[in-house]
Amino acid sequence: MREITLTDMERLGAFDEAERTFQMTEEAFRSFYELTARPVRVYLVRMTGDDRLADDLLQETYYRFLRANVAFSSDDHRRNYLFRIATNLVHDHRRKPFMEVPAAAIAEVPDAAAAAQAAERAARRLDLHRAMERLKPRERSMLWLAYAQGWSHEEIASAIGVKTASMKAMLHRARQRLVALLKNGERS
Amino acid sequence: MSAYDCPREQDVVNAVLGGRWPDRCDESLVAHAASCLTCREVAQVSMLLHEDVDHARIDVIVPAAGQIWWRAAVRARLESTHAAARPMTWMHGITGAIVIGAMLAVVTAVWPMIPELMLTIRTIGKDYLPSSEVASALAGGLRQSLLIGSIAAVLLILTPLALYFVLSDD
Predict the structure, then answer these.
(1) Which ranges of A23-152 does DSSP label H, i.e. alpha helix?
(2) How much is the ipTM here?
(3) pTM exceeds 0.80
(4) Which chain A residue has its CA at the smallest distance from B58's CA?
(5) A104 pLDDT exceeds 60?
(6) Phi, psi of A93 (to 5 degrees)
(7) Cβ B52–A55 below 8 Å, yes or no?
């Protein structure tokens, strides 16, 4: 069977069809993407610990989002659905450890006071990363969605696929573990 | 309020993520957090994660929206093309099976008639040809030719079909 090339795709009107297949127009997608791509990419990198995998998952997340046959009631609902897809994809790929903080963060700061502050912030981030690395992938996702994205308990429960009451208990335990790990990190 | 959460937890998170914590938010919330272990922990974790997100967002590079859209469009088109071609692949398979079945049926039907045919040829040979040796040699030659012809026909039909199924993508 002959392979289909991009020229064929263009000839066949792939992009006109995309407008019909996808749940939003290209223009609407561009606006939505500008608002959401960075937080989703950061989330994916932090959850997978792999830049390349995060890029692949970002593409896959938006593809699945565009093909989803869902009637969104609000922008929040749309954004939450996107993160839900990303969370599910991350859980399918949960193999690699948490990403290390790049060491370049401190080097570029010119004056001493600012450099000290930057070093302190970088150290805090490093502690956070080390502590997060020791959590289970689901705990990482829950903490991120709750405290970095500001999702409600109901939204997280729905994204992770557990009951709200169970999620509250799980989130509580995850938070306590993280705080304990951070304290241990400070001591060491 | 359960053992796991506090009703003001979300307010603390919103204040931190909104950049209002602790100086530019409701004083009662800060006072509450000072006395509530859950909210204290929530504020600590949320501030750390918020700082991490802010830092990461400065460096993060994402592909252009047009590129994501374009790739998604191409993939959607390819998937729909494959989905549309699937019944055709099935039809090809069914047609191949029918052709093979029909061929086997014809061979099965014709096979018992071959000795009869040979006998007829031999009889004709006896009547018209100069000797019985010539007639039986002719009959043997015909039988061999028929066998070779059948094998060739089977190969000519089966080979392209086999190649088609081996080389097709699905």
Answers:
(1) 26-48, 51-67, 75-92, 112-133, 137-147
(2) 0.71
(3) no
(4) A38
(5) no
(6) -110, 15
(7) no
